[in-house]
Fold this protein.
Amino acid sequence: MPSKPLKAIKPMFPSSSSWKIVRGDKVQVMAGKDKGKQGEVLKVIRDQRFPRVFVSGVNMITRHVRGEVDPVTATKTPGYTVKLEHPIHYSNVMLLDPEKNTPVRVTFAYEDQPPYRRVRMTRGKLASKCVVPWPHAWKNDPQPSTDEGAKDTKPEEAEKVTYNPAADFTMQVPANHRQLRELRELREAAAAAAAAAARQQQAQRQQETRRSYWRNTTAAKSFAHSNSRG
């Protein structure tokens, strides 16, 4: 039986500005084996199809590390085990209300006073309607440098006008429909002449092929007739 076609997975977040949970937030797990646990977000994997988050102390796994042999002293260090956080789905966690310490939903809003920054505000019946501050760990991430480098284009070079469209525009724009009709007729006549020339060349090639075939056939027949007489 033919297999069914796979359905396309619809992305959870259409744009990169829709992520409400970032690194450093305090969240609570709402589903899974660690339901009810609270922790800090260590990392957010912003995958449009399968977003995941790492939460401290949640979904712990054990990894065995093999012992290594020192090439100088030829001594072997024993192996050991470590516990690491494993990612969980982005939809399984919720932000905590900073006043009630309960999981709440948040929405984006803007401040009433300059610089009118975008903030996260709690919403819902049980929410305190307060602003969830952005974590310092996320705000202190290194930002791209804006300093001018050796390979950057200087402002005076970027402002120079190096292209004049009027000088490169050689075609004359027709003034009325009569000129348009004349141009169209000229193009059609040129196309018809090119097609006629192509047909004539093809006919000449076919005629030359027939002549060469007739000459070769006549020569072969005369040669065979002379051999039969001899």
Notes: The chain has a mean pLDDT of 80. The CA atoms of residues 30 and 92 lie 5 Å apart.
